Amino acid sequence: MPLQNRADPFGTLQSDRARGSLMGNRGVLHDQEKAIVRHWSTKSWVTCVLDYGGYRRPLFEPGKYSQLFFLDEATAFAAGHRPCGTCRKERFREFRAKWLNANPEAVPSEKVTVISIDKLLHSERAVRGGAKITVEAPVDTLPFGTFIEREDDAYLITDTALLPWSFGGYGRAESLPEPGTIATVLTPFSIVRLFRNGFRPQVDESADLE
């Protein structure tokens, strides 16, 4: 049985054999038996490359951070994770600059640190107990890369369609709802603003965007 370390757009961790394209962490989440016992142990939720300098270590080592896996970057952002500032340094720099431009009033300019960004993201993604924070917004105001919830399932908004999400990839495209339709948004809203500001998240090739 795979470990419970595959993250979905709701931020929930589940067991699945699909690995995805990114790794990440929220601190130490597992016990000695490699069972998930907490939703996070740090407010620094990051996404990392799968291979960094050839370094590898066993999954869920005692006392070490719990390796999580994501289908793609859009999924990771919906779950509330940002790019790592070490193994994804250039992507993090782009994220930080465009996030600040998109959210000028979120953090006072003289206090902008990665800690302050993480703190605000944490306030948008989850509450004690792990429940997902969502907001409501007209679907036609939501940019490419945003995830919404429909009948308990997650859907990715692209430029022309809705794509149903799964750990193995995206399903058959569906029509976008009528303009003005109110949607339940899974992606933290400062990230939605980031996407509006021209930051385009990486999406799994199963999305067939061409």
Radius of gyration: 17 Å
Main β sheet profile: 6 strands, antiparallel
The averaged pLDDT comes out at 94
Q: What is the helical fraction, as a range of percent?
A: 10-25%
Keywords:
four-stranded mixed beta sheet; 210 residues; 12 strands; alpha+beta
Describe what this molecule looks like in 3D.
α2 packs across α4 (189-196). The chain has four helices and twelve strands. The strands form three sheets. Strands 7-12-8-9-10-11 form a six-stranded antiparallel β-sheet. A four-stranded mixed β-sheet has the order 5-3-4-6. A two-stranded antiparallel ribbon has the order 1-2. The mean pLDDT is 94. The chain is globular. By secondary structure, the protein is α+β, with helices and mostly antiparallel strands.
Q: What's the arrangement of secondary structure elements?
A:
Layout: E1 6-7, E2 13-14, E3 22-25, E4 46-48, E5 68-70, H1 73-79, E6 82-83, H2 89-102, H3 114-125, E7 135-138, E8 147-150, E9 153-157, E10 162-166, E11 169-170, E12 182-185, H4 189-196
Parallel strand pairs: 4-6
Antiparallel strand pairs: 1-2, 3-4, 3-5, 7-12, 8-9, 8-12, 9-10, 10-11
Helix pairs in contact: 2-4
Quick gist of this model?
It is built from four helices and twelve strands. The chain is of the alpha+beta class and 210 residues long. Helix 2 (89-102) crosses helix 4.
